[in-house]
Amino acid sequence: MTPMVDLMFLLVTFFILTTVISTPQAMDIVKPDKNDKQPENRLELKASKTMTILLGKNNKVAWYMGVAGETAPNIGPLANVGDDIVKNRKIADASGVAGDFVVLVKPTSGSTFQNFVDMMDELEILKVKVRQIDDDNIQDNEKQAMKEQGIL
Amino acid sequence: MPRIKVKRTSTVTDMTAMCDVAALLLTFFILTATARQPEPLAVSTPSSTYEFKVPAENNATLTIGQGKVFFEVAGVNVRKRTLELMAEQYNMTFTPEELKAFMGIGSFGVPLQSLKQLIEMNPGDRMKPGVQPGIPTDSTDNQLSAWVLNARKATKEINQQDMRISIKGDSKEEYPVVKKVIDILQDQKVNKFLLVTNAEAKKK
User: Fold this and answer.
1) B61: β partners
2) CB contacts, 8 Å: A121 with chain B
């Protein structure tokens, strides 16, 4: 009977290991309302505490602090953007300007869904509380800078 | 001086009880293991560290992959009501048998005009690649928007709760395709969505 019991336990083990509780996880995403009729819903951002991250081609990002066009965007791989966020947050928090540190995520046409999810996940891990997704207002100077670097 | 005698027993034991337990466990696991629902549009979702379960009820899932969009609403009664509302809007009629068959179809991606043919097909044929071209999302005939809106109405009617919308996108899908779907939702003032992802271990 021993071989039979052996086989039984082998099967039991197999079924225990393969029945993975495969409940998919979900990520909560909120996008700004598109209603332009309520200008009071617009949020004012502090230039020194705002970091804009543009998601581009080949898993690369371009990021800059403050107003678009004033500083040239830094280009880097998406995997390293977390360090940049931490660095910029430190500088922004040390500046003494009131308000939260804000990250503006702008996925462009070159990026993939994976890039977008990775970016949002990174912000969640780093506990960046104020984050905005903006895929409508990608400005010309941003596009220009990304094109020059070949990531758009 | 007597030597200490170690009593030797036989190593053969009665295995019947152990075998019974093993068989019982085996039966239990085989019966509880749920076969994964086959999906007509297979996507590999990106992974994230978020820990939020996709709701089993009051939820519609939009699957995006290969530039196509597939739609599924949770709950068989809601699903039936959604089709009734859709039929009303597009001046079509579905027989009770067709409605019943539709309740059993999960994710699908055909224009409403060819939904009858899809219902008539046998399940194996439905899953074949190329059979389902995706739900039309053009501005001239935006059926996806109609499906979502009617599913929301049906959920509200039957469950008295708001419907959540999950987007299940393929990792390799280009962002503009996703944006197009999100824009359709935002036109209906749906600004909150769930993005379906795989669980990933948290970085410490």
Assistant:
1) B72, B166
2) 48-50, 197, 200
Predicted TM-score (pTM) of this structure: 0.78
Give the separation between CA B79 and CA A110, rounded to whole angstroms.
36
Among A25, A33, A138, most B C-beta atoms within 10 A, so best to mutate, is A25
Interface confidence: ipTM more than 0.90: no
Alpha helices in chain A (DSSP H): 2-18, 81-94, 113-125, 140-148
Domain boundaries, chain B: 47-199
For chain B, 204 residues long, the average pLDDT of each consecutive 10-residue run is 77 81 84 71 83 84 89 89 90 89 87 88 82 85 89 91 90 88 87 84 56
Instruction: Number of A to B CB contacts under 8 A, please give it.
Output: 145
CA separation for the pair A132, A49 (Å, rounded): 13
For residue B175, give the nearest of A2, A26, A111 by CB distance. Answer: A111
Angle (nearest 5°) at CA B104 between B27 and B100: 130
Q: Which fold has domain A44-148?
A: Nucleotidyltransferase; domain 5 (3.30.420)
